[in-house]
What does this fold into?
Amino acid sequence: MKDVIRTLPISQVREQLATLVNNAKSKLDEYVITVNGKPAAVLISADEFESWKETNWIESDQHLLGAIAKGEKDVSQGKVYSLAELKKELRLGK
It folds into this structure.
């Protein structure tokens, strides 16, 4: 994701839609589309949109956030398994 988000009026977006979509896809450009000078929509790549949806889903799941926080705490405290230890614990063999 880029730091600069361009703001464009819908009239300009209509004229340049194919180019803007291509730029969003290939360069990860982002656009705020205005109607009558006010923000009305956003144009981002499909990949960026999927990433945003996933992040939003994760942040809305308190149980998952708690599990992530616990995992990060365990790592910081050295409570981790090596791959060999994990395989042994799960009885997966070698």
Observations:
- Residues 7 and 32 are 5 Å apart (CA to CA).
- Strands lie at 5-9, 30-35, 38-43.
- The chain has a mean pLDDT of 93.
- The chain is about 55% helix and 20% strand.
